[in-house]
């Protein structure tokens, strides 16, 4: 035991003596190859412990790694029983070391708990290993036109800050494993497709500099966006189509459904843009949200067309002019109105008794007031089988129908005349609808709704097919980014 202790003390003394002798005539400011006419070569490799997050908003990424540098300084070679010496990091202040920095680095730092995470080792032939644990935050220029089906290439550029290529040259140590990962390392939002490294010369105003360049080629996971954005948007668009099956008289229901769908899409759109920079171009996600907006707005406009082109005045609900109402005697009008009130109040089935009591109760509404109604107003009943009851002499006038026979003029011209509000055309349609024999449902289904039930789903399905084919089949060719110091 005493022999081991004595030998250890002797070895420590020998190491101290060796280091003191090495540093007696050592000039820290001079490169190891100073005066030899050749540059000093620094070999580098990186072991990445973890990577991420990758931020699209700031266009940067971070990683935790072991950064190792190797070079030879013959001024520190020695002879002795020990092949290599593990030195204190205080020796770094006494020897020359490369002024390595990261060209595209942001807020990088060395870990210092519980002590600075650095290692310095010296070999007999003057070889030096300088290793440190770093958290590197570097810029990653991103092209987000295909977001979230995009591929990104995040670079890491290493070089000397002050020594030109004639003084200092960087090389990767081991071509195959110069940059490696801890087994089992994964990224949250991306898959690491490939990794490429190269040596190059970077020219700037101060001269030519040796640079190491590694690119991490990443592919984004789309699962999160499918669950949070795409599927909800598709369901909201499909939900807005329910209005095609809602009664067209339910104006507030159909309008409220479409407006709610638009507002919900607005919320999803704003939320999906919070983590993206304000780029000047539209991303793939923006195009999808825009098309969803257009479909919801088109659904609302479709109902506006249904409401305008198939209501009173276009022949869908029969109405009569004031002249025609004047031709009907007061007694017939009274019988019609009393019959309606009898139906609403569920009065006795004896029409004659009801008419006498109701005629005395509602004298004004059954005579002059009823005759002066606006031509665009027509009573509507929930019971689709209910039709006007009128004397046979006025049957052709009082029959209530919902559709007209095919017009003589073309459908296109008919729609145009209705769109511009041509009074002559609208009154003619009203007269034709009023004179048509055979009662039909007042709340019939619009032809526009029938077409929309098929056209909207089919066009939206086609749009989705083309959208996903265009963005999933498109493959990005990774290229080297330019080096900027």
TrEMBL record:
Subcellular location(s) of the protein: Postsynaptic cell membrane
Similarity annotation: Belongs to the ligand-gated ion channel (TC 1.A.9) family.
A single cellular component GO annotation: chloride channel complex
Protein name per UniProt: Gamma-aminobutyric acid receptor subunit alpha-1 isoform X1
Domain called Neurotransmitter-gated ion-channel transmembrane: residue spans: 229-468
Gene name tied to this protein: LOC119640581
Source organism: Glossina fuscipes
Family matches, as Pfam families: Neur_chan_LBD, Neur_chan_memb
Keywords assigned: Cell membrane, Chloride, Chloride channel, Disulfide bond, Glycoprotein, Ion channel, Ion transport, Ligand-gated ion channel, Membrane, Postsynaptic cell membrane, Receptor, Signal, Synapse, Transmembrane, Transmembrane helix, Transport
Transmembrane portions of the chain: 224-246, 287-310, 454-474
């Amino acid at each position: 035991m005493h022999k081991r202790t004595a030998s250890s003390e002797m070895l420590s003394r020998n190491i101290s003596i060796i280091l003191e002798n090495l540093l007696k005539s050592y000039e820290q400011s001079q490169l190891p190859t100073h005066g030899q006419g050749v540059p000093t070569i620094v070999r580098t490799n990186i072991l990445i412990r973890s990577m991420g997050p990758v931020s699209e908003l700031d266009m940067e990424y971070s990683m935790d790694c072991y950064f190792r540098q190797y070079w030879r300084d013959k001024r520190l070679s020695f002879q002795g029983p020990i092949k290599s010496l593990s030195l204190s990091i205080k020796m770094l202040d006494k020897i020359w070391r490369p002024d390595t920095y990261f060209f595209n680095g942001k807020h990088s730092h060395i870990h210092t708990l519980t002590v600075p995470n650095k290692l310095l080792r010296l070999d007999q032939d003057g070889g030096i290993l300088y290793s440190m644990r770093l958290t590197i935050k570097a810029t990653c220029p991103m092209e987000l036109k295909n977001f979230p089906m995009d591929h990104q290439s995040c670079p890491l550029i290493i070089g000397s800050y002050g020594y030109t290529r004639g003084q200092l040259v960087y090389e990767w140590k081991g071509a195959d494993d110069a940059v490696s990962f801890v087994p089992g390392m994964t990224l949250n939002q991306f898959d690491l497709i490939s990794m490429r490294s190269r040596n190059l010369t970077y020219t700037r105003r101060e001269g030519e500099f040796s640079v190491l360049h590694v690119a991490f080629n990443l592919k984004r996971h789309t699962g999160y966006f499918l669950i949070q954005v795409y599927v909800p948007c598709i369901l909201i668009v499909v939900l807005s189509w329910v209005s095609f099956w809602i009664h067209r008289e339910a104006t507030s229901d159909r309008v409220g459904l479409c407006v709610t769908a638009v507002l919900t899409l607005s919320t999803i759109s704003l939320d999906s843009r919070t983590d993206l920079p304000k780029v000047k171009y539209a991303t793939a996600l923006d195009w999808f949200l825009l098309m969803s907006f257009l479909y919801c707005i088109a659904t609302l406009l479709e109902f506006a067309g249904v409401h305008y082109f198939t209501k009173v005045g276009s022949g869908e609900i029969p109405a009569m002019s004031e002249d025609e109402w004047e031709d009907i005697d007061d007694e017939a009008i009274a019988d019609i109105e009393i019959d309606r009130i009898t139906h609403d109040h569920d009065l006795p089935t004896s029409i004659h008794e009801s008419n006498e009591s109701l005629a005395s109760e509602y004298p004004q509404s059954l005579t002059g007031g009823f005759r002066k109604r606006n031509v665009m107003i027509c009573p509507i009943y929930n019971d689709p089988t209910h039709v006007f009851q009128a004397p046979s002499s006025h049957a052709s006038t009082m029959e209530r129908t919902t559709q007209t026979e095919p017009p003589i003029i073309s459908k296109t011209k008919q729609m145009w005349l209705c769109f511009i509000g041509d009074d002559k055309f609208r009154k003619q349609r009203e007269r034709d609808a009023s004179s048509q024999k055979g009662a039909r449902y007042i709340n019939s289904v619009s032809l526009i709704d029938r077409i929309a039930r098929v056209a909207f789903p089919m066009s939206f399905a086609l749009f989705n097919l083309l959208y996903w084919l265009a963005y999933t089949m498109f493959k990005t060719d990774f290229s080297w980014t330019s080096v900027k110091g």
